[in-house]
């Protein structure tokens, strides 16, 4: 979409998400507003990933999060009305490709061995990388277990809500277009997310119930980090971006494998962190459910998804590995930021 600026157009310096939400029908707005939207989007793409512009990076990810949220918006809402708009499509594409390109370039700086093509070798390679990567044993989890205040534990749960509260939708999107064991394994994972027909065991319900219990434990707590951090939004945006972009279906499989591989240990440590604060383990069923379930999910992803996909196309192993590393990379940045904040206020 090419736009020419006229001398009568006054530049709008409001955050991009504010500009978008101020317009009821994005494709029906005037030329000046449309020009300002794209001008702001290009400014964010140019500056948001510089360390000198943390505020713009936050705006970037808040905007991209809002644009992805259009895909799951309820009918007759602003998001649903504008999901298919040309403006939303172009801005979403612009921001997503800038973000994904930044993360992929960051991967090229890693000192890792070449990705093997054989499916069995690829799985061993990914597991070895995970074992050596800080994301698999990030110190924030031992901190939460052994030292964190109740405020820190509650804050962590608020942040987690931005990252994986709707994991069921992610799995549903991942299985689109797949066949054979790949589709079957995604379906089994989705059935677990849906509680196998038991409404009170649906994982979104479990997550909301556990989060509510943690938030209400011992009443209101001051200084809770309720708003999602930029890094939490980045974790959400990378997975949603790949899920909604068919070019990244293999990368999403690798991403999900890394996610599931590290979930059991993390959930176990979070349970211990909550119990140390005096919480009732029986009220933490979202976490306890994932300690055992995700071990099976990880192995299923490796055996029935990663291996068949790797064998299906010579380009797949590299992209699977990239997705795996993208999860480790964004998760580490998210955990690093939270831990720095917790330690600064401890």
TrEMBL record:
SUPFAM superfamilies: Heme oxygenase-like
Pfam families xref list: Haem_oxygenas_2
Highest taxon above the source species: Bacteria
InterPro entries (alphabetical): Haem_Oase-like_multi-hlx (IPR016084)
Entry protein name: Iron-containing redox enzyme family protein
Species assigned in the record: Sulfoacidibacillus ferrooxidans
